[in-house]
Design a protein that fits this description.
The protein is mainly α. Helices cover about 75% and strands about 10% of the residues. The protein has one domain. Strands 1-3-2 form a three-stranded antiparallel sheet, with helices on one face. The longest helix is centred in the C-terminal third of the chain and has 31 residues. It is globular and about 55 Å long. It starts with a helix and ends with a helix.
């Protein structure tokens, strides 16, 4: 186990530190500028974009279904939360939650495991590529669903 961790590229630890920073910051009430809410989903989606362009139809189908599920869950979950739209600042006041930290860490762990597999056991990683992409779709589109939900609430408020 120690050799796996010590063999991890340095930039992975920078990503891990950033995930911890974002996750712990989200545990406290905060004000977030609406466009900033799209950064996490864009980053998470961009991680596997090359694979999606070369994937077969069955893989794309699983990705699309998991992305749709993630989006719906993220959107509906967000609309049930307490938040305040700050119209003048184009921002949203969010309550603190541990969920973002947990989800980002789960995503990191999945990517870490599959990254290790593709380096050490490429054939096995190829067999499970569909599962990896489905999980990536679920997480990234969950965060996109959240960002869209806040944006829809903002648009509704500005139209009133």
């Amino acid at each position: 186990m120690l050799s796996i961790i010590s063999g991890t590229p340095w930039w992975v630890w920078i990503i891990f530190a950033y995930i911890l920073y974002l996750g712990f910051a989200s545990t406290k009430p905060r004000i977030v500028w609406l466009p900033k809410l799209f950064i996490i989903p864009i980053i998470l989606m961009s991680i596997k974009v090359n694979t999606l362009f070369t994937a077969g139809n069955h893989i794309l189908t699983y990705y699309a279904l998991s992305a749709l599920l993630g989006f719906v869950i993220g959107y509906l979950h967000t609309m049930r939360q307490n938040f305040e739209i700050l119209k003048a600042q184009m921002s949203v006041r969010l309550e603190g939650s541990w969920l973002t930290l947990v989800l980002l860490l789960a995503f990191f762990c999945v990517k870490y495991i599959f990254g290790f597999m593709s380096y050490e056991m490429p054939q096995l990683a190829e067999e499970y590529k569909t599962i990896e992409l489905a999980i990536c779709g679920l997480f990234s589109w969950y965060f996109l669903g959240r960002a869209i939900a806040y944006s829809v609430a903002y648009i509704k408020m500005t139209n009133n």
